[in-house]
Design a protein that fits this description.
This protein has 455 residues and is α/β, with parallel strands linked by helices. The chain is built from 16 helices and 13 strands. The strands form three sheets. Strands 2-8-7-6-5-3-4 form a seven-stranded mixed sheet, with helices on both faces. The protein starts with a helix and ends with a helix. The chain binds pyridoxal-5'-phosphate (PLP) and (2S)-2-amino-4-(2-aminophenyl)-4-oxobutanoic acid. This is Kynureninase.
Length: 455
């Protein structure tokens, strides 16, 4: 994999060969011309400046610079048609839709599986779409967190996403333990944002006697740091501790090999880089080695969708549990929540996570390179700089400017990104629709705002 240094050198060399400065639009244009994924931008709706207040002026039709896929990915153009098809089926066939067509509702969760398996590096029998992220976290925690007075601790990271923290706290309380005593929070490094691999591993080794489970993010929501998932998962296997990952910010962003790494369980939402739409159905992974554990060996909360499809409608009171992750399904999935996820995965399936990652390293690397050269007096990049440790997102910490003021000025100039108090801007160029020229324009806009705003 390229290093931050070798990437910077490649931008400098390209600029030199074009006889232009590194912040020249010529360089950005060249990078766009060389981009194998450039045509994918056409597959998505890009919000335009005039969206909130339609205007006849051309300037208002200009696309926004959308750098917020860490919160919500853009809408693929064919999502609407797919949804309308299902509305038509409902209108014209009503209950017949359960067994009609290639996306029959009674088995619609089968449709995204092959695509999803590729995106997260799983066997098709290890993944499904169900519920939402925090609900799936709870379902897996209920099965995998079986505390005993000796082994009752869960390891998470300090500054975990609050929903994950609340889920863990409530599970501990549910078993009659106390979050104060049963949660180990790995401390961040001195920067207060990122985590060292050794600190994580040391905490695991130091607490091996009392640790029951580890729940960490694949990519941290605040810093954008990629956690060493493989190393953590292999260590946990060696030590016989269950490990689960929250992949909200990792799925569709960085390549994952959940099966090979031996992760016990993982869950994610589909509305960020996966572009499945606001509140879209979530995803879940359960490693094959747990597939044949029934509800006695791996106790869980079940519903009728956990029952094998062949016998589901025999309506018996005894559960005929489907092996693997399907045995964790509770309810029949919401069709209007899963269809946009299928639509988005169909776009992903025309490329690969490898290609997406290749461009992402270049695109986010270019962003970091420009920021460091142009505005490092005013901004610290808190995301680790090495490509192996970041995905699409860079988290920018304002050294002296007011966050709200800067964010408002960016919004006025057509940049969409988000903030985390007190001083962090999150920006995430996404390979399937962002361009190098947008990245350059963003840095120029931010630079001019920082120069013209009081610090
Ligand atoms: C890391 C993380 N955990 C949990 C959530 C909450 O997800 P949901 O509301 O889908 O349960 C989010 C938000 O997307 C998140 O980023
Ligand atoms: N679903 C949302 C609804 C409203 C506002 C934000 C979200 C987010 O997803 C935030 C994201 N999880 C984050 O990393 O902060």
């Amino acid at each position: 994999m390229q290093t931050a240094n070798s990437l910077s050198m490649s931008f400098l060399t390209l600029a030199e060969s074009l006889h232009c400065a590194v912040n020249d639009v010529l360089l950005a244009t060249k990078l766009d011309e060389q981009d194998n994924l450039a045509s994918f931008r056409e597959e998505f709706y890009i919000p335009s400046l005039g969206e909130e207040q339609p205007s006849p002026f051309d300037e208002q039709q200009k696309p926004k610079i959308y750098l917020c896929s860490n919160s919500l990915g853009l809408q693929p153009k064919h999502t609407e048609k797919k949804l309308l098809n299902h509305l038509e089926t409902w209108k014209n066939r009503a209950v017949g839709g359960h067994f009609f067509g290639t996306e029959a509702w009674a088995s619609i969760e089968d449709v995204p599986i092959p695509y999803l398996a590729k995106v997260v590096g799983a066997l098709p029998s290890e993944v499904t779409c169900m519920n939402s992220l925090t609900v799936n976290l709870h379902l897996f925690l209920l099965a995998f967190y079986r505390p005993t007075p000796r082994k009752h601790k869960i390891l998470i990271e300090a500054s975990a996403f609050p929903s994950d923290d609340y889920a863990v706290q409530s599970q501990i309380l549910l078993h009659g333990y106390s979050p104060e005593e049963s949660i180990i929070r790995v401390a961040a490094k001195e920067d207060g944002f990122t985590f060292s691999e050794n600190d994580v591993l040391d905490e695991i080794y130091n607490n091996v006697e009392s640790l029951c489970l580890i729940l960490l993010p694949g990519v941290h929501y605040l810093s954008g740091q990629v956690f060493p998932m493989e190393k953590i998962a292999r260590t946990c296997q060696e030590l016989d501790i269950f490990v689960g990952f929250d992949l909200a910010h990792a799925v569709g962003n960085v390549p994952l090999h959940l099966h090979d790494w031996g992760v016990d369980f993982a869950c994610w939402c589909s509305y960020k880089y996966l572009c499945g739409g606001p509140g879209a159905i979530g995803g879940a992974f359960l490693h094959y080695r747990h597939a044949n554990k029934g509800i006695k060996e791996l106790p869980r909360l079940v519903g009728w969708w956990a029952n094998r499809r062949e016998t589901r409608f025999q309506m018996k009171s005894s559960l005929d549990c489907t092996p693997g992750v399907f045995g964790f399904q509770v309810s029949n999935p919401s069709v209007f929540s899963i269809v946009p996820v299928i639509a988005a995965l169909e776009v992903f399936d025309r490329t690969s996570m490898l290609q997406i990652r290749e461009k992402s390293i270049q695109l986010t690397g270019y962003l970091a390179f420009l920021i460091e050269r142009e505005i490092s007096d005013d901004i610290d990049i808190i995301t680790p700089r090495e490509p192996s440790q970041h995905g699409c997102q860079l988290s920018l910490r304002l050294k002296r400017h007011n966050l709200k003021q800067v964010h408002e000025a960016l919004t006025c100039r057509g940049v969409v990104c988000d903030t985390r108090q007190p001083d962090v801007l999150r920006v995430a160029p996404f390979p399937l629709y962002n361009t190098y020229r947008e990245v350059l324009e963003f840095v120029q806009i931010l630079s001019s705002i920082l120069r013209s705003t009081n610090s």
